[in-house]
Amino acid sequence: MHNPFRLFVAAVAISLSAASWADSDRPAHAKGEPSETLQQAVSNLSEYNDKLDTLLAKGELNAQDMHEVHMLTYTLENALQKIQADLEETAAVLEEVHIASETNKPEVVKEKGQVYLQSTRTLVK
Predict the structure, then answer these.
(1) Please, are residues 84 and 113 in contact by the beta-carbon 8 Å criterion?
(2) How far apart are CA 40 and CA 122, in angstroms?
(3) Which UniProt keywords are given for this protein, alphabetically ordered (predicted)?
(4) In 1-125, where does DSSP find H-type helix?
(5) How far, in Å, are 6, 12, 33, 82 from residue 75 at the CA level?
(6) How far apart are CA 46 and CA 74, in angstroms?
């Protein structure tokens, strides 16, 4: 009874280690620049989009260019994740404004409307 179980455990261990071998050709992952605030995320998005644009404008991408693209995508991913999270919150606030406007709650419209505008002004300048 113990032998089939040991064979199963060994098979799982081998398959997991084989999966890790398959990924061994991938470069180590970096963290990129953080995007802790919406303003920082928008700034990083703008700066790193410009860097990506410059690299893409080259005739051919060499190994160093590919590495640079790889590394800057981490910062871009961080920025987009922060922007997406903040936009979800902003959409919820706008919905509060929408509902307050339908239900004749001017104080809620004013308060939540300002919160909405403050958030979106970071995106739209």
Answers:
(1) no
(2) 10
(3) Signal
(4) 2-22, 38-56, 63-102, 106-123
(5) 44, 35, 5, 11
(6) 14
Domain extents in the chain: 34-123
DSSP 124: -
* Residue labelled with tokens 């179980």: 5
Q: What are the pLDDT digits (tens) for 31-81? A: 899 999 999 999 999 999 999 999 999 989 999 999 999 999 999 999 999
- The sign one gets for the Cα dihedral 64, 70, 74, 75 is positive
Amino acid at 3: N
> Are the C-beta atoms of residues 53 and 10 closer than 8 Å to each other?
no
pLDDT of 27 = 55
Does the pLDDT of residue 120 top 80, yes or no? yes
